[in-house]
Amino acid sequence: MIKHIVMWTFQASESASKEENIAKAKELLLAMPEQIAQIASLEVGDNFSTRPVAYDLVLITTHNHKQDLQGYIAHPKHQEVAAFIGSVKDKSAVVDFEC
């Protein structure tokens, strides 16, 4: 089993507040399992910590094999979601591991 964890901090854009961008990212992320077969499970969480080192949103996906993770990353729907998040994120961190 492969676990893929991504965390982001967000910023406001010309057309939306930081909170609106977080909500849109969450909506797009939660829709991915219906369209990407390589996702075994998916969780999205809003951070409630006010610590200065905290991130705003986390994604945790599981995949049966490394090839499934690679297929997920290359999938056009994932690329669409990643493009949106890339346009409104401040920073991100990723960890992939076998469990």
Write up this protein.
This protein has 99 residues and is α+β, with helices and mostly antiparallel strands. The chain has 3 helices and 4 strands, in the order βαββααβ. It has helices at 18-31, 66-74, 76-88; strands spanning 2-10, 41-46, 57-63, 89-98. It has a 4-stranded antiparallel β-sheet. Helix 1 runs antiparallel to helix 3 (76-88). It is globular. The model has no long low-confidence stretch (mean pLDDT 98).
Question: Which structural traits does this protein have?
Answer:
single chain, 99 residues, alpha+beta, 4-stranded antiparallel β-sheet
Unreliable stretches, pLDDT < 50, 5 or more residues?
none
Q: What is the count of β-strands?
A: 4
Helix percent reads: 25-40%
| Distance linking N and C termini | 5 Å
* DSSP helical segment count: 3
**Sheet of most strands:** 4 strands, antiparallel
Return the average pLDDT rounded to an integer.
98
Radius of gyration: 13 Å
Order of H and E elements: EHEEHHE
Shape: globular
β-strand percent reads 25-35%
Topology, please?
Blueprint lengths: L1 E9 L7 H14 L9 E6 L10 E7 L2 H9 L1 H13 E10 L1
Antiparallel strand pairs: 1-3, 1-4, 2-3
Short description, anyone?
With 99 residues, the chain is α+β, with helices and mostly antiparallel strands. Helices cover 36% and strands 32% of the residues.
